[in-house]
Amino acid sequence: MEEKVNRQTILRLIKALNDEEELSVISKIISTDPALTAKLLKFVNSAYFSLKREIDSIEDAVAYLGYRKLREVAFSILLSSILVNKPKEEILKLLTFAYIMKLTAQRSVPELTEEAFMVGILWPIYKENKEETLKMLKEANVSKVVIDGLKDPKSPLGVLRVFAEKLLPYCEKLNNKEAVEIPVKTEKFKKEFLINICLSASLEAEKIIDLL
Question: Which pTM value belongs to this model?
């Protein structure tokens, strides 16, 4: 049986990333958990990056991935560790939702792209246990804009979250090659852009699901 990542280690990692600790500190946190170390080395050496040479040290992996991608991976692992009883297909759906958030934010609120992904990842966790999730996020020094995106549907990321929730079921049908009309009415995005969001989000989710 595959060894599970310690959730407290993930939260320590997220806090260190949010605090922008030195990469050497990030590496030490990851190295305390063999399962997390193995997952990150597997990810950095996967076809996702198509490296010409294998990376075999966590220090090199951390340096290559950088803060942004590490946050993305850390939050994805946190999602799977909390929703551990969910089937792989459900986790894939939740990851797709997070990438819809990220890719849509790149066009509408580019300065909040990273935070949009965090809201997308955290939303299913928040819905299951709001108070515990908020406590966890504050301890991990997650920004107020992310917390507002979870709590307030009228906040910038809350509006985007509501939009992504409406788009998700049609992305699922599109990715299953069903003929559908995307019903989201917006002046900001053309139909072709929304279709591209759906396809790209699904592809990104597929790439990272094996890591989890």
Answer: 0.89
